[in-house]
Description:
Blueprint: H1 6-17, H2 23-29, H3 34-46, E1 66-74, H4 79-91, E2 95-100, E3 107-113, H5 116-127, E4 133-140
Antiparallel strand pairs: 1-3, 1-4, 2-3
Helix pairs in contact: 2-3
Amino acid sequence: xxxxxxxxxxxxRVLQADGKIGNQELAEKVNLSNSPCWRRVRKLEDAKVINGxxxxxxxxxxxxxxxxxxxxxxxDHTEQTIEMLDNFVALxxxxxxxxxxxxxxxxxxxxxxxxxxSLERFIMQKLLRLGIVRAxxxxxxxxxxxxxxxxxx
Length: 153
């Protein structure tokens, strides 16, 4: 893990809020000159503290109005079953998050679709047809109160 000092944390805070910011403006906001700021950003990228830069899209503006958390329990925990799920998740753009969890379920998936009918079709005709899911519970997201990718620094 890279050693992170207060200058690096300040850089990360600013970049989390505005990934498009130019180096000069970033340097000004974190009270560094251009070259040291640029070197620090490169060091953070090389150390994989910064994995990439993305645009945050508004799902509603793209007519993606159905979001749900789908908790699944697998039939078994063999390497083949887990690999099948991993491959499926990697190929499905509707699945925007997948986490292995504790408790009665094995995974929680966050799925975004155009509408509830499309969401149901995806769950029933793709996810459950894999033949590896023992049980699932779907929780529709009615309204998001907070959504951020920013990490607490």
